[in-house]
Each structure stands twice: as C-alpha cells, then as structure tokens.
Automatic annotation (TrEMBL):
<dbReference type="InterPro" id="IPR003593">
    <property type="entry name" value="AAA+_ATPase"/>
</dbReference>
<keyword id="KW-0547">Nucleotide-binding</keyword>
<dbReference type="InterPro" id="IPR027417">
    <property type="entry name" value="P-loop_NTPase"/>
</dbReference>
<keyword id="KW-0813">Transport</keyword>
<dbReference type="InterPro" id="IPR017871">
    <property type="entry name" value="ABC_transporter-like_CS"/>
</dbReference>
<feature type="compositionally biased region" description="Polar residues">
    <location>
        <begin position="1"/>
        <end position="10"/>
    </location>
</feature>
<dbReference type="InterPro" id="IPR032823">
    <property type="entry name" value="BCA_ABC_TP_C"/>
</dbReference>
<comment type="function">
    <text>Probable component of a branched-chain amino-acid transport system.</text>
</comment>
<feature type="region of interest" description="Disordered">
    <location>
        <begin position="1"/>
        <end position="25"/>
    </location>
</feature>
<keyword id="KW-0067">ATP-binding</keyword>
<dbReference type="GO" id="GO:0005886">
    <property type="term" value="C:plasma membrane"/>
</dbReference>
<dbReference type="GO" id="GO:0006865">
    <property type="term" value="P:amino acid transport"/>
</dbReference>
<dbReference type="InterPro" id="IPR051120">
    <property type="entry name" value="ABC_AA/LPS_Transport"/>
</dbReference>
<feature type="domain" description="ABC transporter">
    <location>
        <begin position="33"/>
        <end position="282"/>
    </location>
</feature>
<dbReference type="Pfam" id="PF12399">
    <property type="entry name" value="BCA_ABC_TP_C"/>
</dbReference>
<dbReference type="GO" id="GO:0016887">
    <property type="term" value="F:ATP hydrolysis activity"/>
</dbReference>
<protein>
    <recommendedName>
        <fullName>Probable branched-chain amino acid transport ATP-binding protein LivG</fullName>
    </recommendedName>
</protein>
Length: 284
C-alpha cells in the first residue's frame, strides 16, 4: 500500500473541500436519464434487447447483471460510444440518441475514462489541466469582459483555481506533481473521477470504478461519491461487488440477457427469486 493510501486511513476520509456551488447540477429534472426500448446486436448476438429504464435525479443507482448481461454495451449506447439499432436515450429532456460522445459529454452526461497511456508521462496537475472541458464548464471560467487580452490569463487562472479545488476535494492535491504513471490503482481512479468532475457534469456513469482499488481507498472513493450525490450529482454505477451495490445504492436495476429483469431497492432485489436464478443460484 502506498504512503498516501495508508495515510488516508487516519482522517476517516472526511474531505473538507467542497465543490463550488455554482457548478453543481441543475436539480429541476426529476429523471435526467431515460432509456427507452434500447437494442443493440453484434452479428447474431443481441447484447441489449429492448432495455427501458430511467434514473432519478440525485440518486446513486446500480446497474447489475451476470456476465454478458449487456451492462457495458448499455453504457456505451448511453454515452455515444455505440449507436443503437433501436430505441432512444433522453438526457435532461433532450433526445441524445446516436450523438457523438463529446457532444453527449457537453450536455453534462459524462463517463470516467482510464488515464490514456500518453497521459501517464504527465503529472496529475497536467492531466487535470488537459482534461476535456465542456462548453458548459468553459462558461464558468469565461471572463466577463470578452475581447480583452487579459481574458486568456484570467481564464487560465480560473481553470487553475477550479483544478486545485477538485484536487483538494478528492484529496490528491498533495500528489499534483506526481507522474500519473506512478500512481497506485486507487489514486488513478481518484484522478479519473477528478478529471470527469472538471467537465462540470450533471450525471456521472461509473464503470467498475473500484476494480483494483484497495479497501481503504475504495471507502474514500465511496465517501466522495456520496458527498457529490448529496450536492445533487446523479450517478449510474456498474459494479460486480454485490455487497457494495447493496450497501451504497438506493436503487438497483438488474439486466439479464440485455433486458431489464427487475428494478427496485436493494432489499427488493436481494429477495427477488428471478434475480437469484439469473445469477445461477448464487448469493446476490
Ligand atoms: N463488440 C462486440 N462484438 C461482439 N459481441 C459483443 C461485443 N460487445 C459485447 N458483445 C457481446 O454482447 C453481450 C453483452 O456484453 P456486455 O459486455 O455488454 O455485457 P456485460 O454485462 O458488461 O458483461 P461483463 O459483466 O462480463 O462485463 C455478450 O454476449 C458479449 O459477448
């Protein structure tokens, strides 16, 4: 375990940094994400088959299902990495079906991405400065006096301020000068989420964010996710660890063979016979 990870155990993961309220999401939409009749086939395989669900604002929803259930494909369809054969994806009331990933991210629907190899040779701070900023986010650091040369400097300063704010929030400000390639698995996950947050999203899609993360850092990541959820951010989480899903999500959607088998509270899901059967009799 790295010094950072073990050191974090002492402060019980309480982050004092708060994300600036001016950048928190609009909470006026009850169901920001709606997926309706989504279908995707690969040759003879139907990966997603008439999937329909909606995600409530400000919630942490888990998307679960056995291997091959269609979770990753669903994520890819929602975020524009894949185009559906049928069905629609609506975000904040707008049909975003088939839009390009960057256009969807600009709307405030963002997924975390692994740090690309070329970014490993850059520091954490450089990774943050190079994080894609969406148009909404850019407005935050746009100067009030357009056309003046000092604008550029002001924008840079505002961006830097925001970068430090987000680094502090995730408690990785002390490794700002560290090369991304030297980070532990868990620290990389924190950086990935910090980069995603810098795009000023309304909703974050997390695909197995705890894979390869040690328990202490997993707890810290979860603390940050809950803090952000309380501030109004909406999360959709794909995760294989059932206990983690059941303990942390208020709503769970179960995919099976590309369809929504059932959805409900963790208690509903745990006692659902069909779900247990879908997992081949395993403990859910
Ligand atoms: N690019 C592809 N080409 C062909 N088949 C694919 C492709 N992507 C996914 N599939 C198939 O679609 C089905 C759903 O896969 P998907 O990865 O979405 O499931 P998953 O629930 O994310 O699985 P896991 O939990 O194992 O990651 C599987 O049968 C898979 O083999």
């Amino acid at each position: 375990m790295s010094e950072t990870e073990s050191g974090s155990e002492t402060n019980e993961f309480e982050s004092e940094a708060k994300i600036d309220a001016t950048s928190t999401p609009d909470v006026s939409v009850e169901y920001p994400l709606q997926v309706d009749g989504l279908r995707k086939t690969f040759g003879g395989i139907t990966a997603v088959d008439d999937a329909t669900f909606q995600i409530e604002n400000g919630t942490l929803t888990g998307l679960i299902g056995p291997n091959g259930a269609g979770k990753s494909t669903t994520f890819n369809l929602i975020t524009g990495m894949l185009k559906p054969d049928k069905g629609t994806v609506t975000f904040n009331g707008e049909d975003i079906t088939g839009m390009e990933p960057h256009a969807i991210a600009n709307k405030g629907l963002v997924r975390t991405f692994q740090i690309a190899r070329e970014l490993e040779d850059m520091t954490v701070l450089e990774n943050m400065m190079l994080a894609p900023k969406n148009q909404r986010g850019e407005k935050l650091w746009r100067s009030v006096t357009p056309g003046v040369r000092n604008d550029v400097i002001e924008q840079e300063e505002e961006l830097l301020e925001r970068v430090w704010e987000v680094l502090e929030f995730f408690e990785i400000d002390h490794i700002a000068e560290e090369y991304a390639g030297n980070l532990s698995g868990g620290q990389r996950k924190l950086l990935e989420m910090a980069r995603a947050l810098l795009t000023d999203p309304d909703m974050l899609l997390l695909d197995e964010p705890f894979a390869g993360v040690n328990p202490s850092l997993e707890k810290r990541l979860l603390t940050h996710i809950h803090e952000l959820r309380e501030q109004g951010y909406t999360f959709l989480l794909v995760e294989h660890d059932m206990d983690l899903i059941m303990e942390n999500c208020e709503h769970v959607i179960v995919l099976h063979q590309g369809r929504v088998l059932t959805e409900g509270t963790p208690a509903d899901i745990k006692s659902n016979e069909e779900v247990i059967e879908a997992y081949l009799g395993g403990n859910v």
